[in-house]
């Protein structure tokens, strides 16, 4: 039987393999980052915004998640396109 | 689209079939329920505990403090949390090598909440057969009523779970007050809903799929297993050839083994596998099939243990080793790390001193011809009560500490900032830059002391 390649994995599971590892990564990254930096000292681009600490931590977390997702997505995308490419060559 | 997926994913990514685990009873089931209920209880009760007039365990995000009963940890103490996580990871390795996937079957939050949701489902929709029938039945008022009731109960439980989760980060009495006044902050609301939704989805729908497709631990368990690890296994020599027979028939007489092929072990399995196919990575070692099969064995008056806890070595009739290199190494590292962590925490000084030299001027000469350096001190009192501190300096003969604050009193859990000047005779400076040592000690506690080094800059010897 033909062996399974990542491009045959259902969409839902592809989504999980992007979002889930990056979720864990984002937790670790936020933990390390916010232990070192107090969001109160980090006013981005000198904007004078007043947000609650919880909002700052949450936004930080989502930025990390987004960033890590982009990276996971890149890995998945290249794996899939390489699989397709190699399959076509056979 | 769905059609196509079904045809190409038979091995690794099976099209999801809903699993209806059959109810079990027995020794291991009782043990398991005890463990699951205890863990659930701990989760929901912990935020309610009080200590010294505050929540006993609280990650106070705005104040950037972590309260753990009598201990208050600051971001500076992050290392302890990291160490604790490493410790937890090592403990997982150790227990997995020894006992296999006990974590999965008895303690993993995924299992804990799945079982809780399954229990609610059972109470509302009935036993396995009834649940299957209900799902197959055409839509009717009764079906809608039952299903709605189930989801309402599930959602209520999820919301309570989400609320409790946020209560680990926001004091629970504040949170409850805000909830009652309908004045919850937007982010609190968001996280309660987020966590509730995750619980509802994971425990109500995803269930064993989380273990199969999302859990990293399940994937590398084989690296932690060896031939002496405890596993749940079927005894094929005894059971095969399987086949149905009447109770009165002696298996040997009809050329059969002890397995009556009743499929009960498959029906109880929360991951929907057949333990008789051998050790599979989907098996979360929940031991449901052990209890289920034992019950059948009892009914047939065969000895129990056709499906049982065993090890690969013992199943093969080989010698078993409890103490093997892997276990000893894990245990040693574990104990060592535990020891280091405990000593560190017990010797942790709830005081921190930061010294920043004024960089604008290298040094200044005073009217009396002394060389003067200016420093900003940041004193962090991490203790749970206020203290008065004494401060002194050494490193230069006759160095004088000048400060406009005679008394340094710092409130509990706060930072105190002050400017001090050091004055020294040029004659006593051995180089252009010498180390000075700031000592800070609580007047009412000798163990509350800390030392920080800084540079003192002068004109240098010419
Ligand atoms: S095979 Fe047995 S022990 Fe493994 S998950 Fe299924 S019921 Fe639990
Ligand atoms: S429960 Fe026991 S007897 Fe029944 S099919 Fe499973 S192994 Fe065989």
In whole angstroms, the N-to-C terminal distance of chain A is: 16 Å
Radius of gyration of chain B: 32 Å
What hetero molecules are bound to the protein chains? iron/sulfur cluster
Q: Give the mean pLDDT of chain A.
A: 85
**Structural class of the helix and strand makeup of chain B?**
alpha+beta
Largest sheet of chain B: 5 strands, antiparallel
Specify the helix fraction band of chain A: over 70%
Indicate the overall shape of chain A. elongated
Q: What's the N-to-C terminus distance of chain B?
A: 86 Å
Quantity of strands of chain B, as a count: 16
Helix-and-strand structural type of chain A: mainly alpha
Overall 3D shape of chain B: elongated
N to C succession of SSEs of chain A: HH
Q: Beta fraction of the residues of chain B?
A: 15-25%
| Mean pLDDT figure of chain B | 89
Biggest sheet details of chain A? none
- Tell me the strand percentage band of chain A: under 5%
What does this structure look like?
The complex is a heterodimer of chains A (90) and B (462). Chain A is mostly helical and 90 residues long. Helices cover 70% and strands 0% of the residues of chain A. The model of chain A has no long low-confidence stretch (mean pLDDT 85). In chain B, 43% of the residues lie in helices and 20% in strands. The longest helix of chain B has 26 residues, at 141-166. The structure holds iron/sulfur cluster (2 copies). Residues 232, 268-271, 273, 275, 283-289 of chain B line the site of one iron/sulfur cluster.
């Amino acid at each position: 039987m033909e062996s399974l390649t990542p491009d045959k994995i259902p969409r839902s599971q592809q989504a999980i393999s992007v979002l889930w590892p990056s979720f864990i990564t984002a937790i670790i990254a936020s933990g390390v980052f916010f232990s070192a930096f107090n969001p109160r000292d980090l006013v981005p681009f000198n904007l004078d915004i007043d947000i609650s600490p919880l909002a700052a931590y949450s936004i930080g977390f989502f930025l990390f998640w987004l960033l890590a997702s982009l990276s996971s997505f890149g890995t998945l995308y290249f794996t899939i396109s390489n699989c397709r490419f190699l399959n076509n060559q056979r | 689209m769905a059609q196509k997926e079904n045809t190409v994913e038979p091995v690794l990514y099976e099209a999801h079939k809903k699993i209806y685990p059959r109810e079990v009873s027995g020794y291991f089931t009782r043990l398991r329920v005890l463990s699951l209920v205890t863990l659930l209880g701990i989760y929901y009760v912990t935020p309610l505990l009080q200590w010294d007039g505050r929540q006993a365990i609280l990650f106070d995000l705005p104040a950037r403090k972590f309260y753990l009963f009598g201990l208050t940890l600051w971001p500076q103490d992050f290392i302890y949390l990291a160490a604790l996580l490493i410790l937890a990871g090592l403990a997982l390795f150790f227990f997995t090598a020894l006992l296999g996937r006990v974590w999965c079957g008895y303690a993993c939050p995924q299992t804990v909440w799945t079982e809780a949701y399954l229990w609610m489902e059972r109470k509302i929709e009935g036993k396995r057969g009834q649940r299957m029938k209900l799902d197959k039945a055409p839509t009717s008022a009764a079906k809608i009523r039952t299903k709605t009731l189930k989801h309402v109960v599930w959602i209520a439980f999820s919301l309570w779970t989400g609320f409790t989760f946020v209560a680990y980060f926001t004091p629970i009495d504040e949170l409850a007050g805000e909830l009652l006044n309908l004045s919850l902050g937007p982010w609190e609301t968001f996280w309660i809903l987020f966590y509730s939704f995750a619980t509802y989805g994971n425990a109500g729908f995803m269930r064993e799929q989380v273990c199969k497709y999302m859990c990293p631990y399940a994937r590398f368990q084989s690296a932690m297993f060896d031939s002496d690890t405890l596993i749940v296994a079927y005894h094929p020599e005894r059971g095969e050839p399987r086949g149905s027979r009447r109770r009165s028939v002696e298996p040997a007489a009809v050329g059969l083994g002890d397995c009556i092929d009743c499929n009960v072990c498959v029906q109880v399995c929360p991951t929907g596998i057949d333990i008789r196919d051998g050790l599979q990575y989907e098996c979360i070692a929940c031991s449901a099939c052990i209890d289920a099969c034992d019950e059948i064995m009892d009914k047939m008056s065969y000895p129990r243990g056709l499906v049982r806890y065993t090890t690969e070595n013992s199943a093969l009739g080989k010698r078993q080793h409890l103490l093997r290199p892997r276990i000893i190494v894990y245990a040693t590292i574990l104990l060592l790390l535990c020891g280091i962590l405990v000593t560190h925490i017990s010797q942790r000084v709830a005081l921190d001193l930061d010294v920043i030299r004024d960089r604008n001027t290298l040094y200044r000469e005073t009217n009396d011809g002394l060389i003067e350096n200016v420093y900003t001190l940041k004193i962090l009192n991490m203790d749970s009560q206020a203290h008065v501190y004494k401060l002194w300096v050494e490193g230069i003969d006759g160095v004088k500490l000048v400060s406009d604050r005679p008394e340094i009193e710092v409130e509990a859990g706060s930072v105190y900032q002050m400017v001090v000047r050091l004055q020294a005779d040029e004659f006593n400076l051995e180089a252009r830059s010498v180390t000075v040592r700031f000592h800070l000690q609580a007047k009412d506690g000798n163990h509350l002391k800390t030392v920080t080094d800084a540079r003192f800059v002068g004109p240098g010897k010419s």
